[in-house]
Design a protein that fits this description.
4 helices; 114 residues; 14% strand; alpha+beta; 4 strands; two-stranded antiparallel ribbon; two-stranded antiparallel sheet
Length: 114
């Protein structure tokens, strides 16, 4: 398929910008169905405001925080192995053991050996 440069208008600032044939080919290869609606300057400002660069991928650990817990209701439980308090993202029912993060990792390592 052949592509030709297109002149588009930015939805944020109203300036015109060129959507080049090379960019169109790139968009097609990536499976993007829509042309950009913002000029390169506004796209860059938007990325900077969100704290992400163009090459970064979404990662739930980034979204939730390093342990994946932000935005979730955490529940307190007693670790079945060491007796320390464990915060878990589910309501402990009492029919299965709950482990703190250290003991949980030890359990995982022990079970992966078999």
């Amino acid at each position: 398929m052949s592509y030709a440069d297109q002149v588009l208008t930015c939805q944020d600032c109203g300036t015109t910008f060129t959507f080049t044939a090379g960019e169109q080919e790139f968009y097609a290869q990536k499976g993007f169905a829509n042309a950009p609606t913002r000029c390169p300057s506004c796209r860059q400002q938007r990325k900077a405001a969100s704290g992400r660069s163009g090459g970064e991928r979404y990662n739930s650990r980034d979204h939730f925080g390093g342990d994946g817990s932000a935005g979730r209701e955490m529940h307190s439980a007693t670790c079945a192995s060491c007796g320390k308090e464990a915060l878990v993202p589910f309501v402990p029912r009492g029919d299965k053991p709950v482990y703190c993060s250290d003991c949980f990792q030890q359990q995982r390592r022990a079970s992966s050996r078999y």
